[in-house]
């Protein structure tokens, strides 16, 4: 992906993340995202096709995914792994509070987007 295409995509993602955190997914329209990002709807459609894909891309880009299993040491002592997960969540909340707000909204509010999480 070229630099300008990547930058455009990230600008759209950051605008969507900001608005989803502030207004919620349901109350944020594509027009809002276009205005915030400074692009037209054609550009958003080109990169993401629909609003749900934006949310999925935000999760994929902002939430670290680790391949370590929950029981990496045979589950003899899961406490270090649980402590690591807690540290990662707290760190994410400090470094990217918008993503935590979006995750909380998606967990608490009823929707059919749970599979995205």
Topology (elements, then pairings):
Elements: H1 3-23, H2 30-37, H3 41-48, H4 51-62, H5 79-95, H6 97-108
Highlighted features:
elongated, 117 residues, mainly alpha, 6 helices, single chain
Q: In brief, what are we looking at here?
A:
The protein is mainly alpha-helical and about 120 residues long.
Overview of this protein structure:
With 117 residues, the protein is mainly alpha-helical. The chain is 67% helix and 0% strand. The protein is built from six helices and no strands. The longest helix has 21 residues. The chain is elongated and about 55 Å long. It starts with a helix and ends in a 9-residue tail after the last helix. The model has no long low-confidence stretch (mean pLDDT 84).
């Amino acid at each position: 992906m070229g630099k300008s295409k990547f930058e455009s995509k990230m600008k759209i993602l950051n605008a969507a993340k900001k608005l989803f955190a502030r207004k919620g997914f349901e109350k944020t329209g594509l027009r809002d995202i276009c205005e915030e990002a400074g692009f037209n709807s054609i550009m958003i459609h080109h990169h993401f096709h629909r609003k749900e894909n934006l949310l999925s891309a935000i999760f994929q880009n902002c939430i670290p995914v680790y391949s370590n299993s929950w029981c990496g040491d045979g589950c003899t002592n899961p406490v270090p792994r649980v402590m690591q997960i807690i540290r990662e969540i707290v760190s994410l909340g400090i470094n990217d509070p918008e993503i935590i707000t979006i995750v909380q909204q998606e967990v608490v509010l009823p929707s059919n987007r749970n599979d995205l999480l």
